[in-house]
Design goal:
About 35% of the residues lie in helices and about 20% in strands. A 7-stranded mixed beta sheet has the order 2-3-4-1-5-7-6, with helices on both faces. It starts with a strand and ends with a helix. The protein is globular and about 45 Å long. By secondary structure, it is α/β, with parallel strands linked by helices. It has a single domain (about 1-185), classed as 3-Layer(aba) Sandwich (Rossmann fold). Helix 1 crosses helix 5 and helix 5 (about 155-175) runs antiparallel to helix 6.
């Protein structure tokens, strides 16, 4: 069993913001896999599907970004999932819009959602898929920038990046982290 966790903030006001790119990827994946709705479980929006013979869980924590670890730990505990069975999808300021990067593990890099997950799991050894949102313009704080929607001229890059992330997730499920890193980190 594997779980794919997309990070974001609940509520209409956050729907298309940079911080919610993890939710956007899970929604695209659900659409591609013909999952029509989420239920409410593990402090999040929850869905499941068999991909081949493997049960795959989609989770969008509804705890707000900074408390994402609560939902992830609840899910992992219930299903007895190891950290390496989780793939966390989230925004990254250090990547340009349109770029993705897969990592097998790592620190939070200052991302509060990842910091919360590491704290609740007691491990940083979980795969993650970083989605590029770019750096804020000079003079604008990162905290306000991540809560802004993508600019119109970024929409095409966002759409391509979201679809590429879905392809990377499917490869991760079939072939694992190293294979996904080799293919998509070089490509992006």
């Amino acid at each position: 069993m594997k779980a794919i966790i997309g990070l974001g903030n609940p509520g209409r006001e956050y729907e298309r913001t940079r911080h919610n790119v993890g939710f956007m990827v899970l929604d695209r994946l659900a659409q591609n896999w013909e999952i029509n709705n989420y239920s409410s479980k593990f402090q999040g929006a929850f869905a499941e599907k068999f991909v081949g013979t493997e049960k795959v869980i989609l989770l969008k924590p509804q705890t707000y970004m900074n408390l994402s670890g609560q939902a992830v730990a609840s899910l992992a505990s219930f299903y007895k999932l190891e950290p390496q069975d989780l793939l966390v999808v989230y925004d990254d300021l250090d990547l340009a819009v349109g770029r993705i990067r897969i990592r097998a593990r790592g620190s939070s890099g200052g991302h509060n959602g990842i910091k919360s997950i590491i704290g609740h799991l007691g491990s940083e050894f979980f795969p993650r898929l970083k989605m590029g949102i770019g750096r804020p313009p000079v003079g604008r704080s990162a905290a306000s920038y991540v809560l802004e929607p993508f600019a119109k001229d970024e929409e095409e890059g966002l759409d391509a990046m979201t679809e590429q992330a879905c392809e990377a997730i499917e490869l991760w499920l079939l072939k694992g982290t190293t294979e996904a890193m080799n293919r998509f980190n070089a490509k992006s």
